[in-house]
Amino acid sequence: MFLAHNEMFAAAGWNVVPFSMKHDKNVASDWEKYFVDEIELGSDDHFVERLGKSFKAIYSREAQKKISRLLSEVKPDVAHGHNIYHHISPAILSTLGKKGIPTLLTLHDLKLACPAYRMITHDGICERCKGGGLYNAALNRCMHGSTPLSIWVTMEAYLHRFLRSYEKYVDRFIVPSRFYISKFEEWGWARDRFVYIPNFVNGDEIRPEFRPGDVFVYFGRLSGEKGLETFIRASVSAGVKIQIIGTGPEESNLKSLASQLGARVEFPGYVSGEPLFDRLRAARAIVLPSEWYENAPISLLEAYAAGKPVIGASIGGIPELITEERGRTFEAFSAESLSEVLADFQKMPDGELEQLGRSARSYVLAVHSRQSYLDKCQSVYGTLL
Asked: What's the gap between Cα 221 and its chain centre?
C-alpha cells in the first residue's frame, strides 16, 4: 500500500518523498541517503548490541535526526505514514509535529490500542488491555508467544502512551474499515480523530473471469489466525475441492490435518502475479475463514476484481465488504457454518454464481478504485492544509 500510494500521488502530480528503512530489496530512491539503517536482531549479536537495537526500535534517535535533515531540504506540505513502528519508530511523529507539518497515519492494524497489533493471543481474540492494562501483552506473551518480544512491545506501548506520541502529533488517522474505527472508539479514542478511506485495488488491470470453476480457493499467509483448519474441516464435511495458496508457519500442520482427514486439498505454495490470478479466475469462490479482527483485506478486493464472489468469516471488517449480491458470510470459528455455505455454493447454478461475480467486480471498480482513494485522501489533506 505504501508503494502503491506513493506511485498514485506521483502520477497525480505530487512531489512524493519517501522516508523508509534501508534494505537491499528496496525500490531505488534518490532519497535513500536519509533512510534509517536496517535493524536485524540476529542471534549472533552480543547482548549489549541487541539491547541497543531494541531501544532504537522503541524510540529511534537516528530516525529523528535523519528525518530532520530531510525536512530541512524538502519542506513538505503534508506527511502520511504507513507502518512506522519499530524500524522507524513513532519518535519521528514529534519531529514532524514540532516542525508544524500536518501528519496522517494509516492504521493497517490495531497497534494504536494493542501492543501486539492484532488483539489475539494464545487463547484467541483478546481485549485484556482495554482500559489501560497494557501489561497483559507481556503476561500473556501476545507477541509470537515470546516473553522477550512481548515485554519489548509492552515497553514500547507504555513509552509512547506516556509521551502521547500519537495523541499529540498525528492530526488524522486514516482507517480502511469502519469496524476498526468502532474498535478504537471502544478503547477510548475520539471518533473525530479518524477518517474512513477504503483500501483500493487497480481493478482495471485485473482481467476477470466470471465463469465459475469447481474449486474453492484461499490465498494468503498460512498462520493460525487465518482459520485454515476450520476451512479444511468444513471442506471435508461439504465434500468440496479446495486450494490453500501461500506459505507460513502452519503449513506442515495444515498438510498433516488434510492428510489425516482425507481432504481434497492442494497446496500450491507461494504464487504471485498472473499465475495467482489465473488460479483465482479458475475458482468457484474465494474463501476468507479468518479467526481474528481483520481490517479490510485487499485479498478480498482482488478476488472481486477477478470476478469471483467471496465467502468470508463474520468477524472484523470482513462483513462490511460482503453482501448477498457478491458473496456470503458464515459464523467465524464454525466449520459447520462454513460447510453449509460451501455446500450451497457447490450446488448453486453457474449462472447465479456468475452474476455474483459480476456484481462483485462492479462494486470494487466503483467503491475501491484508485481515483476514489486519491480523491478522499486529497480531501483530507485539504482540511489540514
From this structure: 11
pTM given for the model:
0.92
d(CA 170, CA 93): 7
Question: Of 223, 231, 221, which Cα lies nearest the Cα of 312?
Answer: 231
Domain boundaries, the chain: 2-200+370-384, 203-367
* CA angle (98 as vertex; 9, 191 as ends), nearest 5: 65
d(CA 278, CA 283): 9
Euclidean distance between the first and the last CA atom of the chain, given in angstroms as a whole number: 23
Output phi, psi for 269, to 5 deg.
85, -155
- DSSP letters of 43-84? TTS-HHHHHHHHHHHHS-HHHHHHHHHHHHHH--S-EEEES-
Burial class (CB in 10 A: 0-12, 13-18, 19+), 168: exposed
CATH number listed for the domain at residues 2-200+370-384: 3.40.50
Q: Which long-range contacts (CB under 8 A, 24 or more apart) does 366-370 make?
A: 367/198, 368/198, 368/199, 368/200, 368/201, 368/203, 368/301, 368/304, 369/200, 369/203, 370/8, 370/200, 370/202
How many other β-carbons are positioned within 10 Å of the β-carbon of residue 383?
Answer: 10
> pLDDT tens, 95-134?
999 999 999 999 999 999 999 999 999 999 999 999 889 9
CA distance 353 to 361: 13
C-alpha cell at 259: 492428510
Does 203-367 match 2-200+370-384 at the fold level? yes
Q: Which CATH architecture has domain 203-367?
A: 3-Layer(aba) Sandwich (3.40)
Checking if the pLDDT of 43 tops 70, the result is no
